[in-house]
Amino acid sequence: MKKTVLTRYRVMAYITAIWLLIFTGAIILKYGFSTGDTMLISQIHGVLFIVYVIFAFDLGTKAKWSFGKLLWVLAAGCIPVASFFVEPKVSREAQALITDDPADPVKVSSR
Q1: Which of these, 104, 18, 99, lies nearest to 62 by C-alpha position?
Q2: Number of H helices and number of E strands within the chain?
């Protein structure tokens, strides 16, 4: 697996998580305090979430995750702040599968 697969997932996990928090705040303002509109924020988050799902699915396929683990990672993108806890764990696990890491001393010495 290439490092770019993990990097794309990580970037989208954080961006999606931040937009989900913004969206959650907008929903609270709209329905709790009758102010604001959520249309633009919800559309931006929706597009970002679709990209997140694609990148998470790509990572899961290349990391050979079980279907249950893939669903767990995708569900983390739906729960505010969950991505901030799930992403580091997923990144640690996926880091071991990266094959193009130039900093790996074993690969550098074998050239």
Answers
A1: 99
A2: 6, 0
- Taking alpha carbons only, the member of 71, 90, 89, 82 closest to residue 18 is 82
Q: For residue range 41-75, what is the model confidence (pLDDT) as tens digits? A: 999 999 999 999 999 999 999 999 999 999 999 98
pTM for this model (two decimals): 0.81
pLDDT at 103: 54
Residue 51 · residue 12 · CB < 8 Å: yes
Find, among 41, 43, 51, 39, the residue nearest to 77 by Cα.
51
Instruction: Decide if pLDDT at 102 tops 90.
Output: no
Note whether 20 and 80 are within 8 A (CB). Answer: yes
Single-letter amino acid, residue 13: A
